[in-house]
Amino acid sequence: MFKGKKILITGGTGSLGNALTSRLLGLDVDTIRIFSRNESKQVEMQRKFNDRRLRFLIGDVRDKERLETALEDIDIVFHTAALKHVPVIEYNPFESIKTNVMGSQNVIDAAIKQNVDKAICISTDKAVSPLNTYGATKLLMEKLFVTANNFVNLDRHRTKFLALRYGNVFGSSGSIIPNFLQQIKNGQKITITDSKMTRFSVTMEQALDFILDCTDNGKPSEIYIPKLKGYSIELITEAFQNLFNNVEIEKIGVRPGEKFHEVLVSSDESRYSWDLGNKIMIANPEKSDKEILETYSENIKKNTETQVYSSENVEKLTVNEIKKLIQDYDNS
To answer: Distance between CA 119 and CA 104 in Å, rounded?
Structure first.
């Protein structure tokens, strides 16, 4: 579905934006517009790809007029722009509201005005039963996107909105793997919060496969979640100790606003969740089971048990699998 399409990525100079751009360029797209605030990263990205199909636009999702210009003639918009560092946001909560909530509404309004075909927002496990401001803003972003379809005049507009939710990407900027590697290279102790803490494991390639699959096959007004394995901080630490000599550990304790285990589907949401094989869908509660079953042609099964989908209770990666992921990242 991407051949010949014009695509815009908000926050496109980030880790996901770079990886998504690389994948889409291989799918014969017509144009990719990178929309972000950081001119230095745009110059760096332009040199990295050196592809005439890329366009770089300085802009902020807080500026709706600039978004409307950027989205002219666009077929698909991937909304990845966000303030995301939890401690920073806890100290500056309203700034995150301006970007993550009001900025998301600006993307929605501009997409409808410019008659974009699909608008996909990238969410996070932090949006489930949020414990911090970042999670709360991402929850609101999801709500805005899945309800945006209620306000689209189908006689005049075609825009379809959906939300994708997954955990931290393994090896992404600011995540545990690059942090540990940097500490080891600097001769420092690796700092861990709590060895029993767990997280979902998703590689960038898995995230990209999931995003493109949902863009192609996802239905409007729904939230989609990939089925993932998990890992514990204890296993991550063990893998680093196996790979590197004399790794010392310093426990710093759980930070404010940080969850002990990641949750991608809460017990309340599970009542509206459906098993789609390789992924889970949380349906709009306003839709009946009959309506959903008629919409999907593939095998789909409603989750009958009220169960939390947590990194604590999913299958875990082995130490050898984690070592392979660390080595792949370090050699990339």
So the answer is: 11
